[in-house]
Design a protein that fits this description.
Layout lengths: L12 H31 L11 E7 L8 E5 L5 H4 L1 E7 L7 H18 L5 H20 L11 E7 L2 E7 L3 E6 L2 E4 L6 H10 L5 H6 L25 E2 L5 E5 L1 H4 L4 H8 L3 H15 L7 E7 L1
Antiparallel strand pairs: 1-10, 2-3, 3-4, 4-5, 5-8, 6-7, 6-9, 9-10
Helix pairs in contact: 3-4, 8-9
Pfam families: PP2C_2
Keywords: Membrane, Transmembrane, Transmembrane helix
InterPro entries: PP2C, PPM-type-like_dom_sf, PPM-type_phosphatase-like_dom
């Protein structure tokens, strides 16, 4: 009969100690890594909140003119997530025939084009809207009347915490930030051309500013092919509290920069109403139509 033998395995204490050491080291390393991850999470800056829909202030008055040749529009708030917020101001050329119809045609074309295509690069979108507005105005006037009437056009678009703009004519787009107002666009009038000539040694700045045709537009909707378009290659990065002001010349010819800065510190609609009241109180003879849109971000 064969005997069964039982083998008893005796642990090797050096191996056990080594295994325990490796496990302890792995545990310590994991704890250190977890601690670092937690510290990084705590130290990481908070992600900026998406920009809320800008508050809008509106001003639109006839002044002492026989008709209202300014026109403006602002896109609906509910389109902001998909389209951004668009503001447009158009100033029909004062004293010319159909100035009111021209500005209305321009604004209508801009807004219809804006609603049609939400997914589009912002700068390209503004150029497309300008093209459609100018085409609509030229078509309305007809080939025989090109240059006989026209309109300025300024567009301001708030999208993804950025402000994009485009302008033709002498309506203005300004930024109010930290208590100061800055003009963003360049005007297309004869005065600006004469001032540039003066800088280059042709005439003087005084002559440029006092020239009888200084206010004449050198680029405007309705002239056929546009002579100038002002659109920067970059955008304005929006800061909380920024205000963007789009206005016709009836506003900035009536009030000084200091006066506008004083009113722009108010909430958007209050600012618009204060500007309107100030223009009325000035009571300038022959006060032009005056229109302003304020976007408070």
């Amino acid at each position: 009969m064969k005997m069964l033998t039982t083998m008893v395995l005796v642990p090797s204490w050096p191996l056990v100690a080594a295994a325990l050491g490796v496990g302890l080291a792995v545990g310590i390393l994991a704890a250190l890594l977890l601690s670092r991850i937690r510290k990084r999470r705590k130290a990481a800056p908070a992600q900026p909140m998406p920009l809320a829909v800008p508050l809008v202030g509106r001003l639109h008055a006839q002044g002492q003119r026989q008709s209202q040749q300014d026109c403006f529009s602002v896109s609906p708030e509910d389109l902001y997530p998909t389209h951004g917020l668009l503001a447009v101001v158009a100033d029909g050329m004062g004293g010319l025939e159909n100035g009111d119809a021209v500005s209305q045609t321009a604004v209508s074309a801009v807004m219809n084009g804006f609603y049609a295509q939400p997914e589009e690069e912002p700068r390209h979108k503004l150029l497309r809207l300008l093209t459609e507005a100018n085409r609509a105005v030229n078509r309305m006037l007809g080939p025989e009347n090109l240059g006989g009437s026209g309109s300025t056009l300024v567009l301001g678009l708030v999208q993804e915490e950025r402000f994009y703009f485009l302008s033709v004519g002498d309506s203005r787009i300004c930024l109010f930030r930290d208590g100061s107002m800055f003009q963003l666009n360049r005007e297309h009038n004869y005065r600006c051309r004469l001032e540039l000539n003066a800088v280059n040694g042709e005439g003087t700045l005084e002559e440029a500013q006092s020239h009888p045709k200084a206010a004449g537009l050198t680029s405007y909707l309705g002239m056929g092919q546009l002579a100038y378009v002002d659109q920067p290659e970059d955008f304005v990065a929006i800061r909380p509290g920024d205000r963007f002001l789009l206005m016709s010349d009836g506003v900035y010819n009536a009030l000084t920069v200091l006066e506008l800065e004083q009113y722009l510190s108010l909430p958007a609609q209050e600012a618009a109403e204060a500007i309107g009241k100030a223009v009325e109180e000035k009571a300038w003879p022959g006060q032009d139509n005056y229109t302003a849109v304020i976007l408070q971000c």
